[in-house]
Amino acid sequence: MKSMKRRGWMLALMASATLTMQSQTHEFVVQTKKPGAEIQPTMYGIFFEDINFAADGGLYAELVKNRSFEFPQALMGWNTFGRVDVKDDGPFERNPHYVRLSPAGHPAKQTGLDNEGFFGIGVREGEEYRFSVWARVPEGDAGARLRIELVNTASMGENQAFATQELTVTSNEWKKYQVILKPTETQEKAKLRIFLASPHTVDLEHVSLFPVDTWKGHENGMRKDLAQALADLKPGVFRFPGGCIVEGADLATRYQWKNSVGPVENRPLNESRWQYSFPNRLFPDYYQSYGLGFYEFFLLSEEIGAEPLPVLSCGLACQFQNNDPGAHQPVDQLDSYIQDALDLIEFANGGTDTPWGKVRAEMGHPAPFGLKFIGIGNEQWGEEYPVRLRPFVEALRKAHPEIQVIGSSGPYAEGKDFDYLWGQMRELEVDLVDEHYYCPETFFLTQAARYDNYDRKKGPKVFAGEYACHGVGRKWNHFNASLLEAAFMTGLERNADVVRMATYAPLFAHVEGWQWRPDLIWYDNLRSMRTASYYVQQLYSLNKGTNVLPLTMDGKPVTGAEGQDGLFASAVYDEPTDAVIVKVANTSDRAQTIDILLKGMGRKEQLVSGRCIRLQSADLYADNTLDEPETIVPREETLSVSGQSLQVEMAPKSFAVFILNK
Questions:
Q1: pTM of the model
Q2: Which residues are annotated as catalytic?
Q3: pLDDT in tens, 124-160
Q4: What is the CA radius of gyration of the chain?
Q5: CA distances (Å), origin 635, targets 8, 129, 583, 616
Q6: Cβ atoms 492, 464 nearer than 8 A
Q7: What pLDDT, in 10s, does the model give residues 347-389?
Q8: In this structure, are strands 551-552 and 609-616 parallel, antiparallel, or unpaired?
Q9: What is the DSSP letter of 586?
């Protein structure tokens, strides 16, 4: 009996201890009168790379694959019928191929061709699509007719076509023609079909189909929903065009910005670095049309309010794919690469009386783009990189001391190569160092204090240029990964005097064309979906504030350290709204009570209003989908506030932003 009483007493004590543990209050002290580092406008941004069909087949709104017949297999993406020949003496020097349609030679036969688009052609009922083509009648100038159709080859109706227009080619000189197609049905996987509709021979080049309703209405424009998703992030910086495509699988296929500007019809094709990278997910038809080029990137940066950050080749091909030193540009033969960097600054910022400033003006933007940053090299490592970076830095400092130069610490977040390159970047006195970390959960749970002890005096500053949580056994988008990213980002924010900009990567992925995941935004031919990681980035960007505020628990930063119960937190002050913004991630499995105390407010000062924006999911390994794009989205609630403190409840495995107005 005595032992039973003792056992009961012990169980009650344990239950009481458990209850106390569950209801323990954590006190966050925010020093409101000690604003710290200024948070740069560039703090949170976006990184674009043409991976996962992010450009052609994605953000770039062109619906025709291989529109200039320049793929190595000239008719890849096309099916032909009747008499169709490929010629190579066309009107555009860098895109010389075109097709010749000749009468089939029999009254019951047809000549023409179909285009499959990118995983099909997605069109919506009632919307307008601009078909354009450069064409001529090579023999004589009699009017030759073409019939342009959008077709559904799987249709059970009497007619496969659901949009049809006729186009008349009137000259033996190359001219651009266009018609508007208006579908009578919505189709995700239509085809574009072109019939020769009269007994004439006709030549066709640069066959194109765009939605009329592109982002900002640009004819050579971007897919509206995807560009809008970028704008809704309110990014401070926009890094482009990559990534590994800057390097190329070899130097011949590196991204060359000069090939991506000027008339779109004469921008040469480039083989994508990602075409062969993953044999287990092979896309042999992955090429870059350069229709989405540097001019379009600069223009998009301007339109979404982000600082452009172009990255150029340093003369090293992708080192993951090239062990032979002969695959790289020799150090003493970098002049043309360096000149490309200097010319790019002239293209972006030069007057219209300069050669490259004139090109920009002729493309429709006489005013400078105001370029401030340039990156040289991507994920290079070893002594091969700094020895090539040095002449770039010297030339850029001499010609353009106003431009901030960004170097790289390589593809790894730590280790011998990382430490070596950081030392080299200090010696070269670059302005920022691009750090990358595609890492598992343990990294993001243990690295919130990563920048607490970085050198505050010597520099360089940090650009967290590519990062994402790659779950162990779950290397795809899911809520738990986004929660850990949110937790880690409290450390970026707290150390804004060291970290000047950060961009998640990769940005885009087509659901039928991906080779790398997780990604921020997914889409098919008609729909798009913003992931939980997207909303984490957006919550930070929209609530970045203007200055860091010290936030501590028991006198220490809240970094998920031992004894902090899986909590991560940061605080900022936003001068325009006179608000204190506190971000909290609870990575533990239990609810936690937090007292937020605002120290330093005047005696008569009080909180007058407050809001809380929460992001959480009952299923840690779920995410939004194209069918259910709003399963995990931020939910906002009004807070009842008074005095100079606030008690809040953090659900298990959740992220929240508290906006407190004085």
A1: 0.94
A2: 379
A3: 999 999 999 999 999 877 789 999 999 999 999 999 9
A4: 28
A5: 44, 37, 14, 9
A6: yes
A7: 999 999 999 999 999 999 999 999 999 999 999 999 999 999 9
A8: unpaired
A9: E
